[in-house]
Fold this protein.
Amino acid sequence: MDFQLPDYNVWQMLPEIVLFVWALAVIVFDLGTKRKTGSAVGYFAMLGLVVSGIALAIVGHGRGFGNMFFNDSLAVFFKVIFLGAAFMTIGSSFGITKEKIVNHRGEYFGLLLFSTVGMMFLASASELITLYIGLELTTIPLFVLAAFFKDDKKSVEAGIKYLVVGALSSAFLLYGLSFLYGLTGTTDILQMRFNLAAGQLSTGGDIGVILIVAIIALLAGVGFKLALPPFHQWVPDVYEGAPTPITAFLSVGSKAAGLVAFIKIFVLGLYAYYEPFMAPNDWGMLTGALAVGAMILGNVVAIRQKNIKRMLAYSSIAHAGYIMIGMLSMNELGLASVGFYMFGYLFTNMGAFALIAHFEDKTGSCEIKDYAGLSKSSPFAAMSLTIFLLSLTGIPPLVGFFGKYYVFAAAIKLAGSGPGYDWIYWIVGVALITSVIALYYYANVIRTMYFIKNDAPVKLVFSAPALSMVVIGLIGVFLVGLNPEPFIQFASGIPFTAGFILP
Amino acid sequence: MVEQASVGVPFWILSVIVLVSGFMVVSLKNIFHCALFLIFCLTGVAGIFVLLNAEFLAAAQVLIYVGAVCTLMIFAIMLTSNMTSKKIIQTNHNAMVAFFGCMIFTVSVVAMLWITTRDGIWHMATELLPENNVLVIGQLLMTKFVVPFEVVSIVLLAAMIGAIVLARGEKA
């Protein structure tokens, strides 16, 4: 037998390995202490995320396992987002683990860490099989987590809906990936890109309609993760029914995972095809149409929502649309702006959901009308929620404004780069108008908190973890908003990933 | 050296088996019969794998899907009370919408197949297959594709833990 062992370089995988082992340790810790751990197991899980983050910083950039595992700028940037999202999710879960899921605290946190490990593998994947399996590892624990309140019909409904739609979309993704493999004869994303550009295809250089069908299938698969219309139908029900911290994780972590898959497949893998076979204009119009659909549908339907989780579900659909505007250009500026947008969205949305989760723990309600009078009884909570919602709208100097600003700037720069791009101005115009619509429904919550009288308003007494998550969110919103430079620098590394530098 | 894959009478017979039993799975009213037809469908797919000289895939298909998945499914159906005698309806009020959605995708796939075969641009692989498929697959799994191979084990572990959490009866 003669075969060469690749240079494994396991060291590169240290953050993932640490987190995986830690997830097992969390489960065993909970069992070993006879499930009487209180909040300790949650703090233990958070510590694991911190340790994994430190490992990520030590390992830095590099690659391992032949060319199968890349720690490039894209991977590192998004791993930071995944770890941050998981950290804040666990931080806002202490309320429900104290009362509602006493028996399964270890499994709850363990599955959350498993899902994070999957996202990290996804971010490092350099070929299609790892990418697909990373996406599966991200999603499968989330099916269970969405249905974690077994006695709650809505939670079970959320779990089943997420499972069915998730399985279907994952099948579509796999189908599309199989076309790509059949066409290019390789699963390696960079090799695939090279083969497409050089015309080394199983069809003898002729792409035909195969790629179009593949793109439809891939969009269905990735659009599900991103909550992008027309693949968004699961979003409102699942967001409403799932435990609130899990909703937060779905809206930030899972969306970022979908974004990574989108960047890897479309920008790194299929980017080359658009020169000879499909003009940038056509590509831009496809993403532009998706963006317009998402922004209009998300923002308009959100107006009518009475439940704040449902409202934020539609708002997250709208934000997927803003992200797609950044993907219009698919150049350095576009990728960096999308990364920065996601970074800001992490703090804003996780902060808002931390407050909502805490409010739900105290009152058992997610209805917007129950927030009436909150400004009188707990001014800090009302003020923080106001700040988060304003940041989601995109009011300066909060981080949401700069996220939107950079995304729009990338699109407008493309529009100014040559004739034939005028339609981009229309898309940005739609984005601006829908942002104003968004202000209406976000402001409705603020109005309820400040101006509607309530005879018996709820007084929120913050527990330490809930308070710290809100404070971290606030710090992020202000720090990144007032001082975006270093974070823009961090994000601007994304385009210079393996896919752009290496052949 | 293995012969090139060929398309002939066996392929068409297997295709008819797969398609008809697949349609039965999603249309019959008795869930037990659905599970039995699923076995037919998956066995037919295994047969097609054999025709394509992918013996390992065929064996895995029979062992895993027919042997494990379908058997488990039948167990689950039989252990659920009153499940076998119940009439189930496999469609709801969204059936027409779903039908049109599926038709759009089906038409695009069929059109793609039709165009590519008409132009004769979708070639079968021309390289000779290695004599020992399984050996090569095993080597690749432990060298080049070791990352996904190992991550799959984490996926299985996570799925198992999740299933136990959901299925476990809670003490009152």
